[in-house]
Amino acid sequence: MPALQAMQYAITLPADYDMQIIRGRVRSKGHLLDDFPGLGLKAYGIRECGVDGSPVNQYAPFYLWAEAEAMNGFLLGDRFRGVIRDFGRPAVQHWQGLFHRPGPATGRAPGAYSRRTEYVPEGADPATVIANAVTRHEELAATDGVHTTSLALDPRRWELVHFTLWADAVPQGAGDRYQVLHLSAPGLGRLGAGRQW
C-alpha cells in the first residue's frame, strides 16, 4: 500500500492584492501537475479577504501524495523553484496520512475544500483520539457533496489535519474554507481507501 502523505504551503498576500493574478496563474499552470507521477491530488485553493469569513488573501494549495519520493522530487524540482522565484520560499507543512476515502461526489470537479487542525490533548491516548477522528471521517465520506476526505498526523506536534474536498460549498463548522480553482488528481486511485495503519 502506498504511504499517504499530506502537504500544504500557504502564501498570504496583501489585503489589496488582485487575486485575479492567482486565478490566471492557476489557469495557465495548473494542468502541469495533471500527470505528475506519485501525486495523488493537488487542490489549488485560495481564500479571499472578506469572502466566507476569510481574514486574508491567500494562495494555499493542498496535496495528497501517494509516494513520498514524488513529494520530495516536487519540493526539490523545477516546479517548486517557480513558487520560490515568484513568492519566496514558503514554510511547507507535512503530515503522515492516516485515512483517505473517496465520497459520493468523487466524479465531480470540486468547488471547495475545508481544512481544520486539532491537537491531540496532553494526557489523552493518541490511538483513541485518532480512532474517533477516523470514525467521523468514515461518516463524512458517505455525505452527499463530499468528493474525498483525509486525516493526517504530524507526530512531532501531535497535530491532526482534517482535509475534505467538496463538490460545492463547504458546510458551516467544517473548518477554514478554500475555493478550488483546479484539481490535479493523477493518482487519486492510488491513495488507498480507509485507515492506513
Give the SSE map.
Blueprint: E1 5-9, E2 11-13, H1 20-29, E3 39-47, E4 57-59, E5 62-65, H2 68-75, H3 78-87, E6 92-102, E7 112-119, H4 126-141, E8 146-154, E9 159-166, E10 176-184, E11 194-195
Antiparallel strand pairs: 1-5, 1-6, 2-4, 3-4, 3-5, 3-10, 6-8, 6-11, 7-9, 7-10, 8-9
Order of helices and strands: EEHEEEHHEEHEEEE
Shape: globular
Mean pLDDT: 95
Number of strands: 11
**What gyration radius follows from the Cα positions, in whole Å?**
16 Å
Largest sheet: 8 strands, antiparallel, barrel
Low-confidence stretches: none
Helix content: 10-25%
Features:
single chain, Alpha-Beta Plaits, 11 strands, about 20% helix, globular
